Amino acid sequence: MAEAILEIRELSKSYGALRANDSISLSVQPRETHAIIGPNGAGKTTLISQIAGEVSPSAGSILFRGRDVTALPAHRRSALGLARTFQITSVIKSFTAQENVATAAQARAGHSFRFWRPADRADDINGRAKSALDRVGLAARADVPAVSLAHGEHRQLEIAMALASSPSLLLLDEPTAGMGPEESQQIVRLLRELKPELAILLIEHDMDVVFSVADRLTVLVNGRVLASGAPEAIRRDPRVREAYLGEEFAAPP
Amino acid sequence: MAGHLRPAHWLLAAVLLAVLCVPLLGDVFYTRLATRILILGLIAVSLNLLVGYGGMISFGHAAFVGLGAYTTAILAFHGVASGFLVWPAAIAVSALGALVIGAIALRTGGVYFIMITLAFAQMLYYTSVGLERYGGDDGVRMAARNTFAGVLELGRPSVFFYVVAAIFMAVVFAFSRLVRSRFGRVLRGIKDNERRMQSLGYDTYRYKLAAFVIAGALAGLGGALNANLVQLVSPSMIHWIMSGDLLIMVILGGVGTLFGPVIGAAAFILLEEVLAGYTKHWMIVLGPLMLLVVLFQKGGIHALLFRRGAAHG
Questions:
Q1: How far is the alpha carbon of B61 from chain A, nearest alpha carbon, in Å?
Q2: Helix or strand or coil: residue A24?
Q3: Residue range B163-181, pLDDT digits in tens
Q4: Which of A109, A144, A165 is a domain's end point?
Q5: Are residues A224 and A200 in the same domain?
Q6: Of A37, A244, B157, B287, whose CB has the highest number of CB atoms within 10 Å?
Q7: Considering CB atoms only, which of A92, A115, A120 is closest to B1?
Q8: How far apart are CA B154 and CA B83, in angstroms?
Q9: Same domain for A118 and A149?
Q10: What is the number of helices (H) and of strands (E) in chain B?
Q11: Do β-strands A224-229 and A216-221 pair in parallel, antiparallel, or remain unpaired?
């Protein structure tokens, strides 16, 4: 098997007495879509934030493409090819959709200590931004200020920003949160399309989405890994059924 | 973003042209007044890079004005009068000061950043008061303005005015390029959502520090010009009231716009000039005016003229 893109070893994060993440180990292989599921408060977002470098672990280590990045700040990890989206939409509100994505692409086009030429005339950056917007289906809304976009469009914009930075690992924190079924389907189509290109670590509550895109599932409960494996195995696991999935998803359709 | 020329732009151009004609009146009082407006406008523009574009509320900007002014006056005191030497030195000293103060202050954010910039400026203020050799409380006089190898006679008010005007226009033009550049985009992004910029891969601390140094250097240049204008550099130039006045100019004129701070500086100085003739408590008028701006017209006078939000200039 090829070297894992991401490998997490016994990662823990405590806030006082609360163990938000308790000795979590998991890996993401190249071109794998790995979904993390679990009830609210299971520590999913804490895990993503630790991988992205916004929250520093209490113990354990994070290897990204074979390199220990545990001590690196978020911007350095991003520069290595790790992109994330936020559960609660986080974009540059005063920028247009295009400028948001261009700002993401610009971060990959060398340093930004360039003081003279207008940023919006960098053709390579604009081109990459445009194709990322195209991909998520936002091309027609490129010139709309981000603050005026609808909720679903914000989610799409988040993904476009992540894609524009040409990552090798995409961390998606509930990409379909608050979306209608149709919009969710659009995200599913996009995720399937992206599969051959990069590795994805996905937090998602919508089980239809999870089971239609994930190659592997990890179930978190109370900060611990309850189970990890292929979707079918997880579906049948009685512990998972009891703790989280319920009967609805227990039987194969 | 470039925008079309609106009537307000023509108005702005006409005002600028009118200001450039002030020395033709032949009255030194008005020439000095116009010079002062341009110098403080330049300093307010530099503060606006931090407040309006970078989201850094610096309450200690007078520190860099003071560093530039004291560098100018102290060099003159020791007989170094050439502007070719003194002005770059003033810029360099202020930039260095901004690098040191910024490197520490930018480790914090929000209200702590406001307080720590204020604290640094007050430290420099008390240091300047303690400079017995250079007049202490009273400050240090400059016997004459800086020289430029006999080419420019800054002693003549109109010549000095046009030198200041040329520098002012060059700085405003460079500033308009800067805020639209890649660097400017990163800075505006940080103001809006710093965490997001970090997750996109930007080392936001370095970009903010660079902006802090640029703003400090420009303020230092303003300080050198101001020292030449008044020919007396005293601790009051560094006092927190000066930092506060600069913030008022930026907010009154329009945060995050190209010309807003210049308009703010002009309004502030003209108000002071007119009202101070009636009462020394002229701030009684300015205070409520600021309240009105903050409550009803957040974009300042600039937004009032241009009829849009405080987005671009």
A1: 22
A2: strand
A3: 999 999 999 999 999 999 9
A4: A165
A5: yes
A6: A37
A7: A120
A8: 10
A9: yes
A10: 12, 2
A11: antiparallel
